[in-house]
Amino acid sequence: MDVVTLTDSNYSGYLNLDALAFSFASPGAMGDGGGICIIDKDGKIYYANFCFGDELIKLEAVEKAIPVIKECKFGALGALVPSGWVSFYLGFGNHLVMSTEIADDFRQKITEANLQNRGDLFQRWPGFILGIIGKGDDNIKVSDIWCQIYHK
Fold first, then answer.
1. Are strands 45-49 and 3-5 parallel, antiparallel or unpaired?
2. Looking at residue 21, what DSSP letter applies?
3. Strand order from edge to edge, sheet including 35-40
4. Which of 28, 29, 81, 131 has the fewest other C-beta atoms within 10 Å?
């Protein structure tokens, strides 16, 4: 699994990604505040952080990579998203937004996994998405992506 980190210096090579799903962590979110993880329709994984870390990116640059994020309004307990997208609250300031074309399959994955809490969904959503589109292991977790980013 390769993860591309988007930064202010490289984002112009990743404009208008064909995003299928992305997570958004508010600046004070538990876990990775300011972190955005994107999975495109080809199963490629991208990461950006507009608050913390050595390779920051301005939120305006992220909006150029995934324009739909500009239309989203993230709040304390959920998000408002445009038509064609659906949101899931992952808890503690963390949000997941995905295309409606995979939302029913995603809900089915949640049911089948018999998750115990939002923290389980927070960890497991990337594997669920990759499994739905046939591009990876259902067991890939957010922590696996973080390991790719922070332990290069």
1. parallel
2. E
3. 3-5, 45-49, 35-40, 19-25, 94-99, 85-91
4. 28
